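S.,

Sequence below, as promised.
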Amino acid sequence: MTSFRVICKDNEKRLNGIVDRSSDRLKENPREQIGFADIILDESPVFFVAIGRDGKTIRMNTTMLKALEYTPDEVEDVDYLTTFVPEEDREGLMRVFKKIVEHGEQTLNENRVISKTGKVYFIEWHGKPVFGPDGSFDFFVGVGIDITKRKDMEKSLTQSLERLRRSISGIVDAISMTVEIRDPYTAGHQRRVAWLARAIAQEMGLSSEMVEGVRTADRSMT
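The prediction came back faster than expected:
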């Protein structure tokens, strides 16, 4: 776990460095600088996009273009939200854009982007505004890490844990039934105590995991 955190912090530092260097080099002449292609990191493995105040795409790097299956001409001057973001993610991303455009904030968020053929990617975005020579806002850039595989692994892990919980609950129930068969005078008592404990835990506002843990513990201990 410690090494994972170190890796994440290192990645964040590298990304922040990329955004800082890119925005610094764009300050003098943000849209017309000859080295613009280098600045948007065409050969970088991360996603990189520049978006105007109006929400329209200025440029994407090669990595993002390939993933989303577009050409540079196809993405230029098109609305970013309605073209590349699933509808259910747009409202949240609009709030992120507002922070950057209206308040000049740097942002960190996760949202999905969708390719021309419908393939969905989960991206962790680092956003930063870019200002012109007079200090006024000109556009903003986003550097993104593809975390689709990580999200898939998290989903798979959650499903595995849920299956494990159901298995454990089934084992406890089976043991309880065996005990009750051997002692008919207490038949049903364990189930009633377990469900009563569960109801009390719910009234206390405990999480669903803790509620189920209380129920299972009572079944196994009663």
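The beta strands are 47-52, 57-60, 107-114, 120-131, 137-146.

Coffee later?
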